[in-house]
Design goal:
The protein has two domains: 123 residues, Rossmann fold (3-Layer(aba) Sandwich), CATH 3.40.50; 65 residues. It has eleven helices and five strands; from the N terminus they run E-H-H-H-H-H-H-E-H-E-H-H-E-H-E-H. The two termini are 12 Å apart. It has a five-stranded parallel β-sheet with strand order 3-2-1-4-5, sandwiched between helices. Helix 1 packs across helix 5 and helix 4 packs antiparallel against helix 5. It comes from Novosphingobium aureum. It holds the Pfam family Hydrolase. This is HAD family phosphatase.
Length: 203
Amino acid sequence: MSGIDAVVFDVGRVLVQWDLHRLLARVVEDPERLAHVTNEVITEEWHFRHDAGEALADLVAERKARFPGNDDVLDAYATRFLETIPGNIPGTHEIVRELSAREVPLYVITNFASPFWREYRASEPLFDLFGDIVVSGDEKLVKPDPAIYELAASRFGHAPQRMLFVDDRADNIAGAAALGWNVHHFHGADALRADLVARGLLD
């Protein structure tokens, strides 16, 4: 047996597709302006500040003042977040359900802004299968800060050495591994399934 007692998942780009550009392209038709909005106004780096717990209203107001003439896209960002999620990552929801059916404890650590998480969580019953979910926006801690992994381990009730953490970002994986977690750098459901089979967690 693998010695793994629990599996901990990331959300964005592991369980669910996420694409800011998808929403922005619905608001901005002009290609030149869209490139400016994507590269300067609403970037993933700026969005990360919301994941880290900064208030949505403050972030949007700051951006409107810095980039006048972009109220339409910033208002869309604030109110139409679910349109950045085109669907699930193929195969991973099935893996979660199979692990749950085998009574493997399941948890989540996600960099996700609090209001956006509440909106998305209400639309996705898969998360009923998870014992606990650590959301960066709620805790004002973000991966790969060691503090978020330490908080998660204390809440989940398993030693890091007994958990497998699945994430798509190399820095997040490295952060967890440095604290003794078992890790899987996600590149698709097939490779994840093969790793879980090799560890004896799936057939």
